[in-house]
Specification:
About 80% of the residues lie in helices and about 0% in strands. The protein has about 110 residues and is an all-alpha fold. The chain has one domain. α1 packs antiparallel against α2, α1 packs across α3 and α3 runs antiparallel to α4. It starts with a helix and ends with a helix.
């Protein structure tokens, strides 16, 4: 993996939890439940297109990382940086890892 690939992969993994933390809550506050659905479509759809369609994330070898892992770990780090509870955040990371692993397993079966 070249240095350019490392940088774009890191940037692609950073963008997803950054947009979730920045926009999702505000969209839910402003528009209610429909705002959550719009956030899911816009944030997840846009970052998936950037990471997989445009090719920000470069994966080598047979193993790959699901976007749920990037979201879980990124949001955990952001929560710790803002002074939130470690235990609650770590529980969310565990569930993100389980979800990412399950998603990867399901995709590998196709």
């Amino acid at each position: 993996m070249t240095m350019a690939n490392v940088i774009t992969t890191f940037a692609g993994a950073f963008i997803f939890p950054f947009l979730i933390r920045l926009c999702w809550g505000k969209m839910c506050e402003t528009w209610g439940a429909i705002g959550g659905w719009m956030a899911a479509g816009f944030i997840v759809g846009t970052t998936w297109t950037l990471n997989h369609g445009v090719g920000f994330i470069v994966q080598t070898g047979s193993a790959w990382i699901d976007m749920a892992w990037a979201a879980g770990v990124g949001l955990f780090v952001a929560s710790l940086a803002s002074g939130d509870d470690f235990k609650k955040g770590f529980t969310n990371v565990i569930f993100a890892l389980i979800g990412g692993t399950l998603g990867g397993f399901i995709l590998s079966c196709l």
